[in-house]
Amino acid sequence: MRDAIIFFLIVVAGTGGELCVSRAMKNVGEARGFHPAEVLRVVLRALREPWMWAGLGMMALAFFALLGALSVYNVTFVVPITAMSYVAGAFGSVFFLHEHVGPQRWTGVLLVALGVTLVILS
């Protein structure tokens, strides 16, 4: 049960963090150039976004869960399991960010899920 919670945290917190950071950056907008003042402006705007802080916190939680998993399991088991974040990311992008995911990407998500299933069953 503990192991399932660790892997759940890695996938859900990591993906949730990436989705939150993506939402924050869509609110901030893109830098219009690479001039230091413009980059600083974008960074400061990003730091004022609550979604950014939520995302960073979730990503930190996922990182420490990953460290815990790597201290117990082989990398050849942990890394493929974390690939489930691609599946979670696709669903999160549709439901949280309202993005379109085309048929080719859904096929790729299915293949990743099948690959992770093979790793778990071996």
Can you characterise this structure?
The protein starts with a helix and ends with a helix. It has one domain (2-121). The chain is mainly alpha-helical and 122 residues long. It has helices spanning 2-28, 36-47, 50-72, 75-82, 84-95, 103-121.
Comma- or semicolon-separated keywords:
122 residues; mainly alpha; 6 helices; 83% helix; 0% strand; globular
Helices and strands in order:
Elements: H1 2-28, H2 36-47, H3 50-72, H4 75-82, H5 84-95, H6 103-121
Tally of DSSP β-strands: 0
Contiguous uncertain segments of 5+ residues:
none
- How far the N terminus sits from the C terminus, by CA atoms, comes to 19 Å
Number of helices: 6
Provide a brief overview of the structure.
It is built from 6 helices and no strands. By secondary structure, it is mainly α.
